[in-house]
């Protein structure tokens, strides 16, 4: 398959971000939404006295999973198979898409219903199905909005976070058959989606889902959702196909106790999401008669081999890091060029694809390293540390490399550093005179410092360095 | 188990706009009749205790054989019990056991009434995953009515699952 | 107490007044400050921009410069965070030294101005400075401390982020400056000269905006009508 995966940035992040910044409506929508969710999360997290210990435990469980991936994959496959599921292993996106497409074809349908799933987004499943003549109907409200708008998701939890209610009403009026409400009340809009999809659910014969967790011990899959579209897809059609990244595994069923406390509080800011479905294989008389589980690697085992970067595999896709990220809040998800946006996307996309894919090497720089993401991560992924690690192991411009080497060479020797300070001071002298009316600050500088002065004045080297002051006042 | 757990469960379930109705065993038949008075019919899973339906006065349908399309009939309600409930989160847990039935019974009708005995309430989710009699049964955890936060991250109730959820809580001792 | 000062390369070259203020405060409290001349940069810039080898060279040379010193202080949250993560130096951010080690909050300063405080990210989330700088500022005579809206939001500096993602950095800076202006303060104080250079460069373009100041400069101020 030659199609670019939807986790490869086709535009360098700085350029995409600068474009997004020009959309004032987008910034307003994102600002309002992320502020709402940040406050809700903070309130429900504050209710849990042992939150930090919970995060530590969850991190340890996930690290154990990453250590034992092949073993747990095999254990899950055995248990799920014993419970009546058919387990498939997909090494990459192309393999997963082929398996799913063939399974859908085997049922003779040209239409499937889908539960929101990051794994299927990651592999571009909908596009692959479309190429095979199969329409995939997204049933999550936000995914439906994005699909009706021919848009791409911009948030892990709320793919349509970049739309406000007025824009959604307009979109429904234009693209949703039978919609004729004047109100942009979210309850009315949600009600419209209910009417629109009900017939689709009742007629569906094949559903495709992901999983939030997969329990190796029992072969169970866990789907966490709010609307009930997930339950519709998991119980009404005859055939259910689950595409599950291997990092979703948990060793024991009892591990769910911690993770089901962490996930809803971190993602929607609720103590518990409205619906969680846990199912193991097939149950005669209840739900689908055929369950296929496609276990997806797509770069995960390679990630697991990186001693620093592997912690990104702990991610449970809660999106708390997006909601607190000052960069994400201002530019939105599309700028990251991947279905995984925000801080987690900046460490996940380049690792899944390798940094040579598209412009994914620009993503680790899409952060000030402010650390807000690490603070809220329910599995304690040190995202800033991984960003730095990816910068250190990724490609770099030759001029920057030379400048950095020269700077370090100068700084590591006391005499060279002192000489450099004096040179800078001397060079700054005429500028200090010229810029006196700006308080000794530079308003316009030549490239590359023009990137600085485009937004702010630049300071000039002081008339006397600290060490010269010290020498003058303390060394005599 | 304790009265405190029951109270916490009731408060937390109420936080997510489930109707919460504490009652004694003696009051139960009348309360259920009141809650279901507007239903065109009441779907009953296998094993529903007869006292739940004693005063119903509405047509009842056996949940065993209904198709999804039949369950989609206007005005249907479903009356179930549950396997366990979680106080901290106000969550009902159904496992397809007695008086619970298939998963679609509590999904397609627009009104779900669930009877919870105090003895079924555990403190928090970790207690739940240990207390489940058989974790490999099809499990559904329900916390309030169907909802979405997809529009401006504001939670609104009522999407694909039941838009109305009533929880009837029976006291600790029987 | 003998305290070795790690002034940081940025303060050394551009903001010597921050180092001077640090020395002034500590000497006023009766301590002896030393300045190991072998110091330059902690390596943070190189490490965070993606150059681990030069970063390691600078971390080691900083470690060597401070070998044998029991207490090291620096008026820079981000440099302290870097040294703490990459060296074994007993290094304290200035407010940590004052509040935790020296157990003082009133350093005898007077600063008759309205001040708002921006907690920089490294101080806030890596060092967990908490309210230490605010407690120190709160004990300064005649200083009126004003709350900054959304204080924990990053200012958008981020080292080379300010150059590589100039547009986003500028947008974050705009919001930080707007919040600072909204306080009506005379000064915006912070614990990192790097963030202050960025915020101050933005504030300089807004008439009537607060002026940037390192909180060490406030702690060093005494006389009537003093300003840094």
Describe this structure in words.
Chain B: This is L-lactate dehydrogenase complex protein LldG. Chain B: Residues 78-168 form the LUD domain. Chain B: Pfam families: LUD_dom. Chain A: Residues 392-473 form the Lactate utilization protein B C-terminal domain. The complex is a heterotrimer of chains A (476), B (174) and C (228). By secondary structure, chain A is an alpha/beta fold. Chain A folds into 2 domains: 13-301, NagB/RpiA/CoA transferase-like (Rossmann fold, 3-Layer(aba) Sandwich); 399-474, no CATH class. Chain A has helices at 13-21, 24-46, 51-67, 69-82, 93-106, 118-122, 125-131, 141-148, 165-175, 186-203, 229-235, 256-267, 300-304, 320-324, 326-331, 342-353, 372-376, 383-393, 398-411, 414-434, 450-453, 466-474; strands at 85-90, 111-114, 135-138, 206-209, 213-215, 220-225, 239-245, 249-250, 275-280, 290-296, 441-442, 458-459. Chain A has a 6-stranded parallel sheet with strand order 1-10-7-4-2-3, sandwiched between helices. Chain A is elongated and about 90 Å long. The model of chain A has no long low-confidence stretch (mean pLDDT 94). The longest helix of chain B has 13 residues, at 3-15. Chain B is an alpha/beta fold. The two termini of chain B are 12 Å apart. By secondary structure, chain C is α/β, with parallel strands linked by helices. Chain C has 2 domains: 2-101, Rossmann fold (3-Layer(aba) Sandwich), CATH 3.40.50; 114-220. Chain C has a 4-stranded parallel sheet with strand order 2-1-3-4, with helices on both faces. In chain C, β7 (187-190), α11 and β8 (211-214) form a beta-alpha-beta unit. Chain C is globular and about 45 Å long. Classes of the chains: A alpha/beta (476), B alpha/beta (174), C alpha/beta (228). Chains in contact: A-B, A-C.
